[in-house]
Amino acid sequence: MKYIKPIVFLVLALSLAACGSATATPAATQIPTVVADDTIIAEGKLEPIHYTELALNASGLVSEVLFSEGDEVKAGDVIARLDASEAQTLESAQAKTAQELTTAYQEVRDAQFKLDNFDVPSTFDGMTPSEAVEAMLVKLDKARADFEPYKDLSDRSLEQTEAEKKSGVVKGTAKIYKKALDDAWARYRKAILWLELESTLQNANSRLILAQRDYDALQDPSFSADTAGTRAALANAEVRAPFPGVITDLNLKVGEFAASGQSVITVADHSQWLVKTTDLTEIDVVGVEEGQSVTVKLDALPNVELNGNVFSISQNFSENQGDVVYEVSILLTDTDPAMRWGMTAVVNFVK
Predict the structure, then answer these.
(1) Domain boundaries in the chain?
(2) Could you say which of 3.50.50.60, 2.40.50.100, 3.10.180.10, 3.60.21.10 is the CATH number of the domain covering 36-85+237-351?
C-alpha cells in the first residue's frame, strides 16, 4: 500500500506536465482535387483535301512532257501529249463534237416530224403510246380467245353459201370473230408503231443531251472539275490538269510507250489539308463528334501547333494491332509552307 500513492502521484505529475507543455495541433493541409484529363489523342497522316490520279484514255508513245514533279499547274494546262492514231487533241475533239451535235439536232427534228405526222386512231384518245399498246394487247388477247374455237377452219370454209346461211349461224359467227381478230391485230400494230416513233424521239433527245454535254465540256473556258472527265475521255491525246495544284507524281517519259487506264500523274491541291487518324480506337471514337475543335502537331514540325475541326467520322472500321479503329478526318484551318503529304501528325481532341 505504501507504494500506491507515489505511483499515483507520479502519474498525475506526468499528466500535468504534459498538459502544461503541449502546443496546439496544426490544422491538416487540404489536398487539391485532381481533375481527370479527358483529352483524346490519336495519330494520323497528313494529306491534301483535293487530289486526283490521272490515267490515260488511249495508248501510245509519249511525245511531250511539259511539266516536272513539284511544278504548279493551272486548270487546263497540258501536262503531256501522246502520239496515237486513235487519240485526238482538244481541237480535234471540239470539231468532232460540234459535228456530232449538229447530227443529233437533225435526228431530233426528223423524229419529231414523223411523230407529229403520225395518224393517231380515235380509239387511242386520252392514251399515251405505252397505254395504247397495253390496252390494244388486252383486246387482242380477247379476240384471240374468241376465235380460238374456229382457228382450224380455213379461210374458204369461213365463206358461207346462201343455203348455209339459212341452215345456221356457226360459220357466220366464226367470220365475225376472225374479222375482230384481224382488226385487233391492226390496232395493236398501230399502237406499237406509235410507241416506236415516240421511243425514237426519246432516244434522239437523249443523244442530243449527251452530244451537248460533250460539246459544252470541251468548250469550257474555265476547265472546271465538272467537265474534266469528259475532256479527258474525248481529248485523249493529251493529259490536262483538272484543277489548279502541284504535280506530286509524274511517271511519263518522252519516247516511252504508255498504256491506257494506267495512273501516270498525280495532281494535288495544297491550299487545304486533312489529317486522317490511323489509331483512334472504338473506346475513344464515341467521344468525338463532327465539328469538334482539335489541335494538331506534326512530328516534322514540333514547334508548330495547327488548329482544325473534325470533318468526318468513318462508319466503317479497320484493325490496327488487334484494336478496332475508326478513321476520323480533320480539316485543318492552319497551314505551314513546310507541310508535306504523308507527314505523321498527333491529334488532340479536347472537349
Answers:
(1) 36-85+237-351, 105-214
(2) 2.40.50.100
Task: Give the count of beta carbons closer than 10 Å to the beta carbon of residue 228.
Answer: 20
Distance CA 24, CA 241 (A): 85
* Number of Cβ atoms within 10 Å of the Cβ of 192: 15
3-state SS string for 212-265 = HHHHHHHHCCCCCHHHHHHHHHHCCCEEECCCCEEEEEECCCCCCEECCCCEEE
C-alpha closest to that of 295 among 228, 346, 220: 346
d(CA 212, CA 225): 17
CA distance 84 to 236: 9
Q: What is the pLDDT along the chain (351 residues), one digit of tens a residue?
A: 333 444 333 333 334 344 444 455 555 555 554 445 678 999 999 999 888 898 888 888 898 999 999 999 998 899 998 887 777 888 888 898 999 999 999 999 999 999 999 999 999 999 999 999 999 999 999 999 998 888 776 555 555 545 445 555 455 678 888 899 999 999 999 999 999 999 999 999 998 998 998 899 888 888 887 887 787 778 778 888 888 899 999 999 999 998 888 889 999 999 899 999 999 999 999 999 999 999 999 999 999 999 999 999 999 999 988 889 999 999 999 999 999 999 999 999 977
Dist CA 131 CA 124 (whole Å):
9
Which residue, 204, 242, 239, is CA-closest to 223?
242
How is residue 106 written as a grid cell? 437533225
